[in-house]
């Protein structure tokens, strides 16, 4: 297989790995599912390793696939950014930049980046809407959105920004009274403890050491809320175990005790920048996206 074909198949692998779906990746790429599957199989044969775990119900990353995605994904994103910068790169951005982002990651990460971008470009005015709802970007008139993946809308262009690494945590009193001082749990024990949920579908997704992903559905959900900071507040009140971004847990110091699950870690969530595929990005939106991608992951490029 020649090098060009390997490069093309690598792009297909990254698309499938980010969507964890051959069907969704094929739709996004305008190809048939069988073609995508066949070409990724060729890539695996060329590399001599299995990159994806395929079952009739889901697609998961192997350890080798996870490592390849972590290395190749950012390089492909950078290439896309370089190509974008080749158009109107000298034009000074101006006008109102309308952006939507999740409440927690938007407030903690995206907002400061957009503010620094606006400070650099005085002709740009920023209008930031923080919401966990999935809004129609065209109908609502947004230039750009930031969303936690996977992105399953084939009408959107998605660019991965960084991974949000999560940890389990609970209040010290909860650890002592309910967990009897134990800070390492088994998968089975995790399912039985009172839970504070800030995750979609009421499940925790765990990544095994072999790269596979599995779901744990808590038997007792004490609090369910669509905002992570509020969920953390419930955990601080001793209502249960919460899964939240590592930096958010760390910000509370000794008021929260990190918990581990034997042989497993919370599956990282991927943060994407998205915009409609049929709508060309304005200069201000493209420059803002470039700024976020360049300055957005200060100390831990792949962690929140």
From TrEMBL:
GO biological process terms, semicolon-separated: DNA-templated transcription
The record ties this protein, via InterPro entries, to: LysR-type_TF_proteobact-type, LysR_HTH_N, LysR_subst-bd, WH-like_DNA-bd_sf, WH_DNA-bd_sf
| Domain HTH lysR-type, chain residue ranges per copy | 13-62
Q: Which GO terms describe its molecular function?
A: DNA-binding transcription factor activity; sequence-specific DNA binding
The UniProt keywords, alphabetically, are: DNA-binding, Transcription, Transcription regulation
Taxonomically, the superkingdom here is Bacteria
Decide whether keyword Transcription is in the record.
yes
Protein family membership: Belongs to the LysR transcriptional regulatory family.
Q: What is this protein called?
A: LysR family transcriptional regulator
